[in-house]
Amino acid sequence: MLIAKNLYKSYKNREILHDVSLAVKAGDFVSIMGESGSGKSTLLAVLAGNLAPDSGTVLLDGQDLAALSERDMAALRRTKLGFVYQSLNLIPTLTGRDNILLPLYLGGKRAGDAAEKLNELTELLGIAGVFDAFPAEMSGGEQQRVAIARSLLYDPAVLMLDEPTGSLDSASTRQVMELLTRINRELGVCVIQVTHSREAAAYGNRILTLVDGRISAQ
After folding, report:
1. Per-residue DSSP letter, 58
2. 38: Cα separation from own chain's centroid
3. Across the chain, what does the average pLDDT equal?
4. Residue 127: predicted pLDDT
5. Helix, strand, or coil here: 126?
6. Minimal CA–CA distance to 121: which of 177, 193, 181, 187?
7. What is the pLDDT of residue 218?
8. Rounded to the nearest 5 degrees, what angle is found at the Cα of 127, between the Cα atoms of 206 and 28?
9. In this predicted structure, which of 39-48, 97-106, 197-206 has the lowest mean pLDDT?
10. Which of 51, 57, 159, 191 has its CA 20 to 30 A from that of 86?
11. Which CATH architecture is the domain 2-217 placed in?
């Protein structure tokens, strides 16, 4: 499904990724671990096509991400590849419902076009109670679930998350990780998460460890 070959990336003459190769299969739940500065968030950004590597290739279902136009890459991010940023990127002036439906609006469609999917996500993630709330009125766990729902709106094949539990307490961490496990198993979505938490990483069926930009374990 997702194949990365010989990825290199540097910033200001500092090498962040060194000859990283990996393959992620359909149905995988992959946890990428590493100390701060190990390159794990950079790797996730490259795998998602949000950041171009200096050299190397990322293939998603056989498509070379580097060969896609900006328009095609944007369409892929909205549809086939869901991404949840560490900052969540919720719009503070939009309600929970409108934050979830934002990709739909950006695609020129109406809320009614996703009514069935929205109902499915509402039941799966338990987010009906925050539909009319603004992000500032939500708990950290509620904000995270809204961001996850938004990334799942178009039924992506792959869901990527950067530190999904980094700002959550232990109870919310368990809730979010159990939701990601359900998404992986019940919806068949491949999940790739970057995390510094061993507790969160253990929910994956594979753990990759980055050390100084290199994969040390698979």
Report:
1. E
2. 19
3. 88
4. 86
5. coil
6. 187
7. 56
8. 15
9. 97-106
10. 57
11. 3-Layer(aba) Sandwich (3.40)
C-alpha triplet 3, 9, 14: angle, nearest 5°: 155
Distance CA 15, CA 128 (A): 45
Beta bridge partners of 57: 5
Asked if 77 contacts 83 with a C-beta cutoff of 8 angstroms, the reply is yes
Neighbours of 61 (CB within 10 A): 12
- pLDDT at residue 113 tops 70: no
Exposed e or buried b per residue across 2-30, where buried means at least 16 C-beta atoms within 10 angstroms of its C-beta? bbbeebbbeeeeeebbbebebebeeebbb
pLDDT above 90 (res 28): yes
**For residue 60, with 0-12 CB atoms within 10 Å meaning exposed, 13-18 middle and 19 or more buried, which class applies?**
buried
pLDDT recorded at residue 217: 60
Phi, psi (rounded to 5 degrees) for 192: -125, 120
Q: What is the dihedral of CA 117, 120, 123, 124, to 10 degrees?
A: -100
Structural domain spans, the chain: 2-217
| Residue 26 phi, psi (nearest 5) | -60, 135
CA 29 – CA 180 distance, rounded (Å): 9
87: pLDDT strictly greater than 80: yes
Predicted TM-score (pTM) of this structure: 0.89
Structure tokens at 169: 């307490």
Exposed / middle / buried, residue 81 (Cβ in 10 Å: 0-12, 13-18, 19+):
buried
Residues in the chain: 218
Cα 171 from Cα 144, distance rounded (Å): 13
Q: How far apart are CA 166 and CA 87, in angstroms?
A: 10
The average pLDDT across 104-125 equals 77
